[in-house]
Amino acid sequence: MEETGSRTVSLADVARLAGVSKMTVSNVINNREGMTEQTRQRVQQAIEQSGYVANAAARVLAGGRMNLLGVIAPRINWPYVTELLHGASRVVEQAGLDLAIFTTSDNVRVERERAMLLRTLVDGVLLIIPAADEQTVFGPAVPVVTVGSAGAYTVSVDDRQGGRLAAQHLLDLGHRHIGHVSGLSSVSRHDASDRLDGFAQELNAAGVGLPPHLIADGAFTEAGGEAAARTLLSLPERPTAIFAANDRSAIGVLRAAEQLGLRVPHDLSVVGYDDVQVASLTRPALTTIRQPLEEMGAAAARLLIALIRREVPEQAHPRFPASLVVRDSTAPPGVVQPPDPVRPMKGAT
């Protein structure tokens, strides 16, 4: 928010003046694609009329606060990201602050330049699944809270516990030849390795084990999960169950099974991770490990606001438990299904 005389101007004020949403105002300010020229002009006129940009610059030069929090995420349309943001936005709005969302770039130079710009625009930064160097580029002057990676201040789930829960569920169903679609190729994904560690530890404790040939990387994407599943399901002795490191790659596993003529869960049981909303809409509905994403987003926002206000946070590393959500994609190996088997939903994102 910015001061104009005795009045405070926020993104919401600009949005009302332009007759658009706060997200649209943010998209125009950040020069994102997808906006019509008419919309851009309306927002620009509202910005100029309200004095939002001019007063934002004046506030920075005066060393004051912007009352603006920046979010950096790989993609805003990923269900994992949107559910985190939903929880964070409620806390930010209740605190009378604004939220600006920026997506990451594969170009290191562009990414660093963007981070340097953010240092002058926002009071603090929430990093969702950040690359390693993003955590250090802001410097001590800008409070930073991370989700999905390590950091001085971070919000996480107990991923080792989540991996153990997935293994326990499949072992309890009677599976003994189990594969894993990992996310290990993603940059700085400590959560991926923790999930694998917990999963493997539980299988080893049961005397089942997880040999290297039963692990294939899915890069946390649907296409990656599909390719990894094809590799695992093409083995001479294919696994009877697969645990995927997130729900998006688990959906890819479901698609690969369908294309190979395998019925889920009769021929193959599948477990995902995250419990994003689409997990309950796949066919069959996906058994998964739940992360309380909205609660985690809210906790990250509260932690960041406390740091900005120079308050002592209750916890520097809030950690949430994982939990098992059993749906229709898992069953004992060889369980007979109805004659018209359900199929994975196509087009899930």
TrEMBL record:
SMART domains: HTH_LACI. Residues 329-349 are annotated as: Disordered. SUPFAM superfamilies: lambda repressor-like DNA-binding domains, Periplasmic binding protein-like I. One of its GO terms (molecular function) is DNA binding. It comes from the Bacteria. Residues 9-63 form the HTH lacI-type domain. Keywords: DNA-binding, Transcription, Transcription regulation. The keyword Repeat does not apply. PROSITE patterns: HTH_LACI_1, HTH_LACI_2. PANTHER family: LACI-RELATED TRANSCRIPTIONAL REPRESSOR (PTHR30146), LACTOSE OPERON REPRESSOR (PTHR30146:SF153). This is LacI family DNA-binding transcriptional regulator. It holds the Pfam family Peripla_BP_3.
